[in-house]
Design goal:
alpha/beta, Rossmann fold, four-stranded antiparallel β-sheet, 32% helix, binds adenosine-5'-triphosphate
Length: 226
């Protein structure tokens, strides 16, 4: 599926006025392609992901998923689209301390009402895909930072999404582990035909991207991939 943000403007209340976080932003994410979003702190990158994830409704513009505008949907419909079509790997989406890596994934399916057997099989497959088959029974404190990040990526794929939204996937990792996570996101994007949008502060990551969008003061411009 293609995600297309079209002329999106988002403002937040700011004292007596409004702060423009996204200023007529347009962005295309195509299946099998990795779009990197870069820009200074406070430029609007997280806001962009939140709009794409349908967690925030923009003031104007469209969020098109295969041509359907998600902005017009009601809350229940948006929740369904998010659950069925969108994978979210945000920094704030922490792992639950008491659950094993496998359970971090199956709990998602459980909440969505899926039968445990199918969910367990898919979760194991995903942990295998991110290189953690042997660690399926470990809890977060028994995993390295890079392994925990892999679990969050696998969890983001649990609903077999078409669109994957990733916020700063390597910020807590050293450069070697960060590079491995980038390789993983690149590979999964290609193999699973995901339309991936990834916010990153690390310019080394741009070599992995098919498209690079720079956001400055809420305005987006396309950069040539590195
Ligand atoms: N809930 C909010 N209410 C008011 N202003 C907000 C809110 N969230 C973000 N902002 C402001 O909107 C602007 C864009 O913020 P955003 O978090 O999207 O930037 P960012 O590029 O992700 O920054 P960083 O790289 O530091 O995470 C900033 O000026 C920020 O202060």
């Amino acid at each position: 599926m293609t995600m297309h943000l079209n002329d999106v403007t988002l403002t937040y209340p700011d004292g007596d006025g409004r702060l423009t976080a996204l200023d007529h932003v347009t962005l295309h994410a195509e299946p099998g392609e990795l779009t990197a979003v870069v820009g200074p702190s406070g430029s609007g990158k997280s806001s962009l992901l939140a709009v794409a994830a349908t967690l925030i409704t923009p003031d104007s513009g469209q969020v098109l998923l295969d041509g359907t505008d998600l902005v017009g949907l009601n809350a229940k419909q948006r929740t369904r689209v998010r659950r069925d079509r969108i994978g979210i790997v945000f920094q704030s989406a922490n792992l639950l301390a008491s659950l094993t890596a496998l359970e971090q994934l199956t709990v998602m399916a459980h909440l969505a009402g899926e039968a445990p057997t199918a969910a367990g099989e898919r979760a194991l497959e995903l942990l295998d895909a991110v290189g953690l088959a042997a660690q399926a029974g470990r809890r977060p404190h028994q995993l390295s930072g890079g392994q925990r990040q892999r679990v969050t990526i696998a969890r983001g794929l649990m609903n077999s999404p078409s669109v994957l939204l990733v916020d700063e996937p390597t910020s807590a990792l050293d450069s070697e582990r960060g590079a491995a996570i980038l390789d993983l996101i690149r590979r999964l994007t290609t193999e699973r035909e995901l339309a991936t949008v990834m916010v990153t502060h690390d310019r080394d990551h741009l070599a992995h991207a098919d498209r690079v969008v720079e956001i400055v003061d809420g305005r987006a411009q396309a950069l040539a991939p590195a």
